[in-house]
Amino acid sequence: MTSLRPMAPELSEKAKNELNEVPARIPEDLAALKAWLAKQPHLNPRTDDQFLVNFLRGCKYSLEKTKEKLDNYYTVKSAIPEFFDNRDPANAKIQENAMLGVNLPLPHTMGPDGPRIVLVRMGAYDPSKYSIVDIMKVCYMITDLLLLNDDTSIIAGHMVLVDLRGLSLSALSQFSPTFIKKMTSVIEAFPIRTKGIHFVNPSTGFDTLFKMFHGFLSKKIQERIAVHDTFEALHKVIPKSFLPEEYGGSGGKLATIIADCRDNLLNNRQIFLEDVKYRNDERKRPGKPKTASTLFGVEGSFRSLEFD
């Protein structure tokens, strides 16, 4: 018998229709995945039913894709300690970075089976005072909680809203090629689909930003990118009711959303304290180990991001 939290009927139906979920077959799928994990000497993953089903759903119940995704998820976490170690939400520095509100899952989804809107405020921090590494650490803490706890993110995906207001060239200078490669590797490792990316408040740095990331984007996601010069144009795609007041919406005040997001990290502190024990031992991997130097060294070519 599986241990899964109940879902809204609309999400259950979407999982069946779009993600190939067959409820009666879930115990069999989980058993096959757990049997494979038990034979991987280098992996030390979470094995609770809900966590593994989230990966199966994110991979549309392809067992082979799920195996690869799980391996990549823990490989990336092990290879980039600057993003994934020392993540105690009670730490004063992490709380301060969380209150900047750079990465914010909005409380209202786009309908009962619609995607979660994630607001990314790239100009919300001063690059002379804050490190992009520390900022991204908090961003990935928030994404980890969505992976663990938010069925909407897993089943319906994310609609990403990128606010470029305040983005400076000094902030862009922190994005080295190696850093971008690490970021894109993390994005690929999460079993969460990106349904679209919408830019608002394009600044003088937008062209530079787009050129930096353009080579990593698949044709599919390029077709899902839109730039909106006004909130009125944005509201034609994302209705006002889902957006914060500061974006012309009625979905709550930004300060409240930021504080709630910080509190959510604190309320899930135990998850982050335990997470550090789930890491790869690359010395035990069959074949060639995957380390930071082999994954993010100057050798090799960049991969394009694929979203579905």
From TrEMBL:
Taxonomic source organism: Aedes aegypti (Yellowfever mosquito)
Q: For this UniProt entry, which residues form the secretion signal?
A: none
Gene Ontology CC: membrane
CDD domains to which the protein is assigned, alphabetical: SEC14
PROSITE patterns the UniProt entry points to? CRAL_TRIO (PS50191)
Q: InterPro entries recorded for this chain? A: CRAL-TRIO_dom (IPR001251), CRAL-TRIO_dom_sf (IPR036865), CRAL/TRIO_N_dom (IPR011074), CRAL/TRIO_N_dom_sf (IPR036273)
Give an example GO molecular function: phosphatidylinositol bisphosphate binding
Residue span, CRAL-TRIO domain: 87-255
| Record's protein name | AAEL008278-PA
Q: Which domain of life is it from?
A: Eukaryota
